[in-house]
Amino acid sequence: MTLAARWTKFDSRFLELVIGLGLLLVGLFQALFPILGVTGPFPPIDTRDVDLRSTAQVPRLASGGTVLRGTHHAELAVGDPGLWDRVLLAAPEVLRAALIIVILSVLLRMAATFRTGDVFVPANVRRLFAISTAVLLLGIAAPAFDMLTTNALVSGTPLEDAVEIGFTVRASTVLLAVLIAALAGAFGHGARLRADTEGLV
Question: Taking the model in full, what pTM does it have?
Fold first, then answer.
């Protein structure tokens, strides 16, 4: 039995199982549970990590509400969050989960092509570009959405001037998206070579 045959019959199934398990875990813990926290059955998310403009003391609100704990890097805690607060707190987590689910779903479809032993197909080129786009959104759109929801949470509260509203794009995430796009280009070249070779036979 060749190495390719062993990969086709066992490794690809195992890879699909691992990706499927990742989909299940992300779907449950990063998407479904936060959504259930917004709608009521589960305890809602009530904190958010934020950066402060300075180390100045911020008075704790006497009757619940929004408070800060920490100095440069602090935890924004919303006491007894209403529906809109729960939506704002959970939305960035759900967005990240949705993007990760897209990535894992596309990877699962790619893994299915390993069973045939032919990964250089046009569909995989499109899938890699889709993964690259999702990774880029994960590095840019998700932090920006985090910033917008944090601003909405503190707007009009005593903490508005204390919390640093901004986001940082991780160069490593952008680089990873570019590398995946380059891999998609390589897959496209491989698919064209394969098509040209079949045309000569």
Answer: 0.82
